[in-house]
Amino acid sequence: QAYIVYMGSLPRGEYLASAHHVSLLQEVIDASSVEDSLIRSYKRSFNGFAAKITDTEAKKLASMKGVISVFPSRTLQLLTTRSWEFMGFNDTIKTNPAVESDVIVGVIDSGIWPETPSFNDDGLGPAPKKWKGACRGGKNFTCNNKIIGARFYSSLDEARDRDGHGTHTSSTAAGNKVKNASFFGLANGTARGGVPSSRIAAYRVCSSIGCSSESILAAFDDAIADQVDVITISIGPTYATNFFEDPIAIGSFHAMTKGILTSNSAGNSGPGVGTVSSVAPWMLSVAASTTDRLFFDTVVLGNGKTLVGKSINSFNLNGKKVPIVYGEDASNKKCSKDYNGQCLEGCMDSDKVKGKILLCDVYDDSSAPSLAGSLGAIVYSNINVSFVVPLPQLALDAANYNVVKSYYTTSAKEAEATILKSETFKDSNAPVVADFSSRGPNPITPDILKPDVSAPGVEILAAYCPLASPSSDWSDTRHVNYSILSGTSMACPHAAGVAAYIKSVHPHWSPAAIKSAIMTTARPMSSTRNPQAEFAYGSGHINPVEAINPGLVYEASNADYISMLCGLGYNVSQIRQISGDNSSCQGENKTSPKDLNYPAMTALVSPSKSFKITFRRKVTNVGIATSTYKPKVFSSSPKFNITVVPGSLSFKSLNDSKSFNVTVVGGGLPNNEAMLSAALVWYDGTHSVRSPIVVHTFDKDYV
Predict the structure, then answer these.
(1) Class of domain 2-73 as given by CATH
(2) Which end of the chain is more exposed for a tag (fewer CB within 10 A), N or C?
């Protein structure tokens, strides 16, 4: 079993990391086995190693001086022509390509396909002077002035993307402008990233089976030392873990100490509460929401009835009506009768489905119809997202699916239909958080709101690997340079692109300041359309145009996060290992998570008990030198009262800071799954600095 041994920051002065790691291993295993046991030392940006050891040996290492945590290496999972315009960030917005070209976006993912037009280097000069990385992409991999660095890890032998995921996220964050990009004519337009003139450094950590913890930590170790400016990582576990047993939380902490903000996908385990897996306060956790362009498909039945469903179907039957066959009637009798209607792989008789449209009761295995040799498929699904399909196929909701099933039953098995090519429509309800997007509250620190923001993550067109199947179906032999994907994986690089844009305008801003700007300028979202409200969308939907001019920011330094860790119970020895300095947990150096200088204010309270909560915050002026801000509280609930002291904040210069307190008083929330929310807005006549206020009873043991 591979384990990660995390040892905090690199010690100052002369330190031979690899030798120290070997000596630790020698104390717990046979000396002759150390060389085979050690997988990798982390020694460029933080201290630790990965090794193959037993559970007993792991426990021995965990008890040793200088070791903060020992945890098994897990396999984590990989979790646009319209999205940027939807956010108001169109080509008419003034940008500075010369300045943008100094920004380096590090992408930790499944690699990159360098030949894609989104990554050509026309008009770009040499890599920025600060760049300390390398192009080690493997055989036949060539970097250029756009992709300035590439690395791969563990058993992988190249940085080239074979999956399409890493190419998609890279181009979303930092891809060039490419005109007439589309998916077989669908979603035609100009594809581009948030900062088209920025550089990309690709770190491939994922294979076809997932992304290992030891590779993720190795990529962070390199990316930080290579001096990227922003990291985007659309990878995550299926559930949240303690900060220092989470490779992304560990890596992003050390990135933060070097001035690098990490954007991370919130997870695809929604819509249940407490499912968010990206929970560390020093990184930006991003939920996925819709844009105003959604895909739909249409089936026309033999009786003339037309039904609308969901899919990204590039095929066209040209109006030809073909027979429909229900899965149960096309069974090969090899599977349980209970499952025959579901069209599961291996359960269909190819002779019975050939040239026909399969009617399937569940949308669990989209590849089953194509593997059975059918011409098309109509499936039942309650998922309100369209996915690329490998043949003429669409998903219908329960009402429409039952219409087809009734038609089939009453047509003496002479039912027929034709499936049209997909189209798009303008969705005036957007943005709405996707059902799959993981929700809060934060199961590790309930007093820190997660996710932080929402960004476009539904049906996003971006660059793709031409070797990969666009529908993830091995029988789909189409090859594309641009494809359409959905997930918080797609939302994450949108937020990273905004962070890179802010970095290009404000190169000296801290990660916390950039994160604050993104959160406090986010557009408010509708709690009516998103019933879980802030637990679904955080501070709101990212707003790139406003984010470069937030007026005020909530700063937080390494010391602030260390104080919060003290408040969570980490001891002085652990704290000093993590921070690499002489930090202590005495007095003011110990802060509850509620009082971290976070742009959102959240508190867990006991059910059915009255409460009085005070949030202590400090804002720094980055707007107009001489300015006065006044607070306004927006709340629709009479169940609690909110006061802000002082009643105004007056600034005399830029970078001046002022403190304030927000007190929330309430008579008690009714049960173990209740929340109330409001918003505080500081306004100076020009800037609106908005922070959500959330009080809830979702105890972390309950979620």
Answers:
(1) alpha beta
(2) N
